Amino acid sequence: MALLDPIPAPVASADYAALDWEPLLQLVAGFAASRVGRAAILDLMPSTEETWIARQHQLTGEVRLIVDEQISIALGGLFDPMQLAAKAHIPEAALEAGELQAVARLAHDIAGWQALLREPPARLAGRLPGLGEISAALTVSLRPLAETIERKILPDGSLADDASSELNRLRREQERQHRVIEESLRSALRRLSGEGSTQEDLITIRGERFVIPVRSEMKRRISGVVHGASSSGQTVYVEPLETIEQNNELVRMLEEEQAEIHRIFVALTRQVGTFATALVEGARVLALVDSLLARARFGREYDCVAPVLGPERLYVEAARHPLLERRLRAAGARANTAVVPLTLELTRERRQLVVSGPNTGGKTVALKTTALLAMMAQGGIPVPASAAAFPVFDAFLADIGDAQSIETGLSSFSAHITNLDRLSRLADARSLVVLDELGSMTDPEEGSALAVAVADFFRELGTWSLISTHHTSLKIYAVNTPGVLNAAAGVDENTLIPNYRLLIGVPGASAGIATAERLGLNAGIIVRARQKMGSQHVDIAEFLDRMHAELTALESERKLVREQQYALNQERARLQREGDIEARNRVRDLERKLASLMKDFEFQMRENVRVVEDRAAQQKLSKEAERRIGRLRREFQESFNQAVVAHQTGADRDDANAQPHVIRNVGEGDQVRLKSMAKIAVVQREVEKDVFEVALGPMKMRVKRDDIAEVVKGARAQTAERADPLAAARRQKGVHVSISSASTDEMRMEINLIGRTVDEATEELEKYLDRAFLAGLPRVRVIHGHGAGILRRAVRDFLKGHPHVATVEEAPQSEGGQGATIVELRQ
Prior knowledge:
This protein is α/β, with parallel strands linked by helices.
């Protein structure tokens, strides 16, 4: 049983060898990360199941997103664990250390893939639904299994001392036994060395037993067991009698250690068995992921796209044969060549394409590229093109190249006819048929008639077919037959060298004589060949030459138009940039104007505050002054809005009256009031436009024109349009500003409205609130009594809408409860 499911509904017939399918799979498989992934790629086949095809391209696209984000997918530990999983289910079976380590690596890879899907990078969140679905069954965490194996098995495959407490105990006892044996042997060595019996003063091991080297002639003088001799025979290795029992004990410990090691491996294997299903399922998912990863990397390397599937259209734009592109890339700069992209389109009404043109002009490459890309699309592999659309074919049939066979006794022509007969029996309306050099390798006239008959057979059958030819009759057939499209393999009109461009809609000139001349055939032969050509062939050749010349001229005009369009776009972009710069400059100009307006407003407000503070020392400003300050704010807002509108429409440009708050007439000797310092200064000179040098006592400084509030003394005495609010208020007709003589101490902290009607109470309360506000009282009490509650409600409603009132609340019981209201005044 394979890790991956077989390809559903593979195409019934496909000429894989003729259409380069196997070499393509080898190319794509080179991008896989594991042998399992490579095998999965090599098993790919075109499918006819549209759901599967669309799913494969969706999944490949999602993996491409991961690749483009440069996220590494760990697949180095991927292998087929099915045999190990089956072995792990056998009672008392023990996997080898290497097998367990392979399981651990696979478990880590599966856990890493689970983590990636569980917490993808922010840019990929919600963009991997297909990968999430195929991985939905991976619910078991395999990280604990991997960590257990790695903790117990060291990288060299041996068990760690702490793999179990029993193993640790046995190894500690072995160490102690080693020391006992070594001490016993060293004692024997010292004794025998004095007698001259030992060959060397060292301890060695023979057959897992500790021994000492003894000269062969002295071995009978030593009580013990001989465990072998050196290659020269001069030394024998003797286990002294006093260490035999000690060595026996060590061997017993080693046997116990091996038994414990086996027990640990059995336990680990049993643990692998419990995770066997999760391991196999994870390996299945990772095998598919590796296959998708290979396709995604291939797609990125070769600039591929996912094709569109539909019954109406076969379309490729800027398509390239991937094997040809790889070969040209390998040739590098020394070849100075690149793949010329191919663009063609067939529709449901026009399913047959006849390509003609010179030899080595790229006709066969165009046919094979189109067919191979269609197979790639149905195999779930992205296609190297900028756009592509294909029907779903049930067969890919081809007759390409020399099919001569010595074994079967068939000539090239006979082999082609046999193959054409096979294609005619297999093809239907859902097949793609590729016929290269149709009607060649026989008498030209008969071959031409046969070619037209074969082409018309497949047309009537409704087969999608791509045909290359040199026969003029087949070119004429393509022009005169509905549903057939001509195409010409391009050639440079001056050098007659093929440029490999496919021109759709016109037949191509074979240019056999011209090609032979270009390749260096004897000039005399070329002349005779041209003389032998019939007048009809000459006329056709000249007609095709004129047509191609006109197409070349048209293409040149199109290129010129594209260049002009590009230049216009560049100019449009330049003007746009300049417009943006102009807009930014106008914004900065507006900001400067608004800053000047704000400075003037701030000066006026500071003047107002100064006036208020001066009066507050003795008495409070009247309500009319408060209204004037509000009016000043409104005037500023209106000025602000007018400045914005004037700037946006350009109405204030070069208009000296557009900013009335700016003093215009300032000269030397004038005394001016500065907004920023609220002091009087004397103008010394105008340094530059709108910048003056002024003297403020002994200090000299430079100020801008909009920092001058007014000219207070001088020939040009002028005041800004907006004056002091108190003075303006006093000049208002019918407005009288008076200052109350009442002080804060004389003002009562409460008013009693009991017995008043609602109208009387509200009138009296309004006057009281005005006096209390001007006196600076922070808090007052309004006594209205209990009664029916009518006066209380009217008073509180009136207070809630009064401009001097900050808060309204019922008085506490100690101050009247519901019969009074506490009012906090604005400060």
